[in-house]
Amino acid sequence: MSLFPRAFQRLRPTASRPSAMCLRGLNEFFETPTSVPVKEIHAGRAWDASELRKKSFDDLHKLWFVLLKERNMLATQKQETDRLKVQFLHEGRVNKVKKSMARIKAVLSERELEFEEAQGALEKLRAKEELAELANFAASSPEVARIKESVAVAASKKVAAEAPTPTPAQ
């Protein structure tokens, strides 16, 4: 038996999970069977940034798309209430969704800044380690000592050649 039928078995609505019903197409943009809810549906609160900071990137990604779907559903209902000239009952939910989405963006930008700072610090540390390795190599290498000695000799010859020669006094 393949996994395919079992996967859909879990998605079928049951008495204990009526919300598990799979909606497709335009029905996903409406919360109720009618195009506009006739009573206000109570929703929870917006997500706090402190709660979102504890979530993984994958969880934030999933939450973003859940909120996006909710925002699109509420926008569809708003358009429908405007068309039917009835009152839109979910302004509070729209604000909660927008706040939550803005907070997800803020948390992700905080993480990005922290990542860039950590990368910069790591690059500085690697550069210091490379300089230390070069200094250790230079101090222990006999070839480098000979090169330093020849540079010093060449520099002293150049200084001696450029020095003004004293002219005899008349």
Structure description:
By secondary structure, this protein is mainly alpha-helical. It is 66% helix and 0% strand. The protein contains 5 helices and no strands. Helix 3 packs antiparallel against helix 4. The longest helix has 50 residues, at 91-140.
Low-confidence stretches: 1-13
State the order of secondary-structure elements, H for helix, E for strand: HHHHH
- The amount of beta strand, in percent, is under 5%
Rounded mean pLDDT score = 77
Biggest β-sheet strands, sense, barrel: none
Helical segment count? 5
Helix content: 55-70%
**Pairing-aware structural class of the strands and helices?**
mainly alpha
- Please report the total strand number as a whole number: 0
The gross shape turns out to be: rod-shaped
- State the end-to-end CA separation: 117 Å
Rounded to an integer in angstroms, the radius of gyration calculated over CA atoms is: 36 Å
Present the secondary structure layout.
Layout (H helix, E strand, L loop, with lengths): L2 H9 L37 H5 L3 H28 L6 H50 L1 H21 L8
What can be said about this structure in brief?
By secondary structure, this protein is an all-alpha fold. It is built from five helices and no strands.
